[in-house]
Amino acid sequence: MISKISPRWKLAAIFVFALVLPWLPLGSSTNYFLRVINTAILYMILALGLNIVPGFTGLLDLGYVGFYGIGAYTAGLLTIHYNLSFWMILPLAALNGAMWGILLGAPTLRLTGDYFAIVTFGFSELVVLVIRNELWLTRGPMGLPGIAPPVIFGHPLKLEWEFYYLVLLLLMLVMLVASRLEDSRLGRAWFAIREDEIAAQCCGINLIRYKIIAFAISASIGAMGGAFFARWFKFIHPDMFKFWESILILCLIVFGGMGSITGTMLGALILIPLAEILRAVLPQGMFNARYLIYGLILVLMMRWRPAGIIPFDRAQESKAARMRQRLTALGSKE
Amino acid sequence: MAGRHAHLRGLARAIHEISGLSRGLSVENLLDISSLFLQQLVNGITLGGVYALIAVGYTMVYGVIQLINFAHGEIYMLGAFLAYTQVTLLRLPFFVAFLTTLLICAVFGVILDYVAYRPLRTAPRLAALITAIGMSIFLQNLALLLWGSQIKSYPRDILPRLFFKPALTMGEVSLSWLQVFILSITVIFMLILHLIIHKTKVGMAMRAVSQDKVTSALMGIGVNRVISFTFAIGSAMGGMAGILVGLYYNAIFPTMGYIAGVKAFAAAVLGGIGSVPGAMLGGGVLGIAEVLGAGYLSSAYRDGISYAVMILVIIFKPSGLIGQILGEKV
Q1: Residue A219 CB: number of other CB atoms within 10 A?
Q2: HEC letters along chain B
Q3: Using CA atoms, how far apart are residues A34 and A54, in angstroms rounded to an integer?
Q4: Are B89 and B287 in contact (CB under 8 A)?
Q5: 3-state secondary structure string, A108-138?
Q6: pTM greater than 0.95
Q7: Cα dihedral value A67, A70, A76, A80, nearest 10
Q8: Interface contact flag, A60 B119, Cβ < 8 Å
Q9: Taking a C-beta distance cutoff of 8 angstroms, is the pair B271, B282 a contact?
């Protein structure tokens, strides 16, 4: 039934639904509901950004939250000290993220994937340490309070539904970028690297260059997410950008389906509200233990559903991957 | 997270305890400064020995199946907690608890491999890495649920009094029996490990598997058994390191594994991953660098020093001090 409707119409229906979402009659809980939805959309943006590295290029990035933090602090500091507009800060934060991505990626992406994973982890821990300790710049553990919200047509955003439309706009932008990238020459190069680095190199793909581009784009999307977060939450603190966040975002894309844009977004849309439900259900001290579930999700998904909870679009490709796996299992060495 | 703060507090206490920072560098007496330096060196070597014990687990597993076993740090943490439960709840004597912990950790390592990693042997590397990270997160939070986020410490009376007395005092520099104990255990087990790898049949099998799994299988080596054995040894060493650190810093907490794990991995990389003597050397160098860095540069960046060393080594000399880097095989 549903499958007969053309994808264009489905997309239109989702879009219309997204537009009217803040006006659903939910009574007094509307504000809370919208806050959760805004968080989910923010994580959809972050997940789409991270997805480019492990999903498209096949490299494990454990330091994504470092770029998120860099973006948030860039935005926070520029707002507090120079009172720049949100639309100025967004590209600046993205640029700063991309710059750090290139600085980190250029020397380390030459290495095999495992080393890259561990270096990105070290990087994000260093980011948190610097934010925590350089009091003159970031106020360290006191955090940065009182970041002004974005101003649109002279009207500073205050209500949740106003932020909802802003973050929705950002999400659509990032979605557009991600889906255009997926179908581009660049995207095909990434997929080739993911499937087989050596074969890709033999086909004339410059591994380092394409990996750095992937890493930089992913970092800039993360930083943009951070910039929105700073101006939305109005308070940032080093603890918000710890390693755990990276795991959470990784979990979102693994759950939804690595490499698939629809899956990635669905992962965030399911797991982030689920975390809110857990917050309500679990006793106070137990809330942090929700990572138990995230860890379990990572393990179980990799074992039984590596293509995500509902395998999407590139089903054909994953079939090819499975075939390749079977061949490796049969014959050639590792 | 509360655990992290607890960790910082523990570290602050430890730094204060061992580095004698309160005496400060303003003392102009050269003798004093040099003895402070020597004391730092001694502490650094002790810490390095523990890192080496953990690093061995990373290095051996990496050598055999080319996987960074992120959950290894969690086994180290579990080792500390298992011994804690045994000496407090079950009131077992320390040395009994020590040995049973080693045994449990070894079995646990084998189970971990069997449940999590073995099904993914032929899957893309990314899948195994993500599983390893997932396992690490899972175990850490399991420990958080079981033991709570409070810092625990071993009761002082589980060890003979002697351990907390200085074994050797030279001016301001002192070496406690506990440090002697830690260092000698490290050296003894490293020697045993060296003998296992180079003088026994199973050691030979391990070396063969690390070179080529398929060919080893064709030569009649039970590859999966060898991998299990590797996990068992590495995990036992990791668990032991957990107990030793628990004794040394007098603090055990669920997040201890993730920091120490990364540092030990840094040690393994520094020494040259896949090489056991390299892990020892890397552990020693990193331990000294960390203690000296915390003492002379900035104690706030204590963890940062390890990360920075690791990143720099990976970038500039990925083959490590000893050891060779293997290109990706087709």
Answers
A1: 33
A2: CHHHHHHHHHHHHHHHHHHCHHHCCCCCCHHHHHHHHHHHHHHHHHHHHHHHHHHHHHHHHHHHHCCCCCCHHHHHHHHHHHHHHHHHCCCCCHHHHHHHHHHHHHHHHHHHHHHHHHHHCCCCHHHHHHHHHHHHHHHHHHHHHHHCCCCECCCHHHCCHHHHCEEEEECCEEEEHHHHHHHHHHHHHHHHHHHHHHHCHHHHHHHHHHHCHHHHHHCCCCHHHHHHHHHHHHHHHHHHHHHHHHHHHCCECCCHHHHHHHHHHHHHHHHCCCCHHHHHHHHHHHHHHHHHHHHHHCHHHHHHHHHHHHHHHHHHCCCCCCCCCCCCCC
A3: 30
A4: no
A5: HCCCCHHHHHHHHHHHHHHHHHHHHHCHHHH
A6: no
A7: -160
A8: no
A9: yes
Q: What's the rounded Cα separation, in Å, for the pair B262 and B85? A: 25
Cα–Cα distance, B191 to A189 (Å, whole number): 48
Residues of A in contact with B215 (CB under 8 A): 333
A144 bridge partner residues: A236
Q: CA of A110, closest CA in chain B: separation in Å?
A: 9
Read off the tokens for B223: 């590859």
Question: Which residues of chain A have a CB within 8 Å of the CB of B268?
Answer: none
CA-wise closest residue to B269 among B231, B307, B234: B307
Domain boundaries, chain A: 30-280+288-330
> What distances in angstroms separate CA B160 from CA A91, A224, B121, B180, one per listed residue?
63, 58, 46, 14
Domains and CATH numbers, chain B: 2-6+40-149+174-316 (1.10.3470)
Q: Is the ipTM of this complex over 0.95?
A: no
A297 near B CB under 8 A: yes
Tokens encoding B9: 């507090």
The CA distance from A291 to the nearest CA of chain B, in Å, is 6
Exposed/middle/buried for B153, CB within 10 Å: 0-12, 13-18, 19+?
Answer: middle
Cβ neighbours for B64, distance < 8 A, ≥ 6 positions apart: B206, B209, B210, B226, B227, B230
Each of the 334 residues of chain A gets a pLDDT tens digit; together they read 555 677 788 888 888 888 888 887 777 777 888 888 999 999 999 999 999 999 899 888 988 999 999 999 999 999 988 888 889 999 999 999 999 999 998 888 887 777 888 888 888 888 998 998 888 888 888 888 888 888 888 788 888 888 899 999 999 999 999 989 988 899 999 999 988 888 888 888 888 999 999 999 999 999 999 999 999 988 999 988 988 889 889 989 988 888 888 888 989 999 888 888 888 887 776 777 788 888 888 898 888 888 887 776 554 455 556 656 665 665 544 4
Distance, in angstroms, between B102 CA and closest chain A CA?
25
Amino acid at B265: F
How does DSSP classify residue A147? P
pLDDT over 60 (residue B31) = no
pLDDT for position B20: 47
Mutate to test the interface with B, among A61, A64, A110, A114 (most CBs of B within 10 A): A114
Distance separating the N- and C-terminal Cα atoms of chain B: 43
Architecture of domain A30-280+288-330: Orthogonal Bundle (1.10)
The count of other CB atoms within 10 Å of the CB of residue B182 is: 24
User: Closest Cα partner for B282 from B54, B129, B67?
Assistant: B54
Amino acid letter, residue A174: V
